[in-house]
Task: structure prediction
Amino acid sequence: MPIPRPASDEFPPYAETYVNAAADALARHGLTDLADLLARQPGDLAALLDGVTAEQAHGTYAPGKWTLLESLVHTIDTERVFSYRLLRAARGDRTPLPGYEQDDWVPLCGAADRTLADVITEFGAVRASTLALLSHLDQNALARRTVASGRDVSARGLAWMIAGHADHHLRLTKELYLAG
Result:
């Protein structure tokens, strides 16, 4: 089932960057369905990281920035948070959900003890779960909303945020971590 682009009132203002990134990625790959982009991203990540060394994976592009592995685990953590919010929205649960502080999570994510292959595998597994959830949602479920971080957000908006956030980090990986 196609997942139409959400209206601007279906996601918080900060997420416009991610919704736009998802739209740009769809256009860049000649796709029209968000589910196709979501299905494509794990393979794109694996291809991008093919040949990356352990030193590169544990390295950063500038002092004080996350390592490549930390950035990737952050992407996985964020997808899990957004997917849970998406489930709550799709099921009509409007119980307010708290925000999460990414900068508090990253130091505790254990990325330094992980391999790139392990993180790539986990990203694929988390994405498969997200796709399985989305595959059974009709347009009514996609339009339902929840409250997260004090803002209304629809299931559809969260799906686009997931795709756009992943695309954002794929581009950062290519342009910053693997540049040169």
The chain has one domain: 8-177.
